[in-house]
Amino acid sequence: MSTEPTRILFVCMGNICRSPAAEAVFLNLVEARGLSDRFHVDSAGTGGWHAGEPADSRSREEGVRRGFDLSTTARQVHDGDWEAFDLLVCMDQDNATLLSERGAPNEKVRLLLEWHPDSEHREVPDPYYGGADGFVHMYDLIEAACGRLLEELEASSAAD
Predict the structure, then answer these.
(1) Count of domains for the chain
(2) Running DSSP on this structure, what letter comes out for residue 92?
(3) What pLDDT does residue 3 have?
């Protein structure tokens, strides 16, 4: 069994709505299961215009309502992330395509909703230009997928 933690980077466009929410949800699940030493988790955006900013206030509010800590600061992905992380988990196909075009290994780039129990959901919609209900929906999707992602990673590390 590997002693190195599994390194996961959640990616969206600006790193202020979806990817920090996914980071917070996944970290919460990891901590609840006592697996913090087995995972290194971060988030980033393909665009850099929000770098250095906190998560969107609506995302933070919905996160707090659900018991998640979104105290991260936005950052932009960089080419070093391809080596630093084992898995680059994107919120939508546009961001996955951008990572691949920038040189990220295709075998590391995945869509978060590949782990959603309902296969009709393929992408986490960007709630930035909408109302609070978009953030509720975003968290519903992220929570369902992150739970299954963690289960898969636990099962694969147990098999190693």
Answers:
(1) 1
(2) S
(3) 78
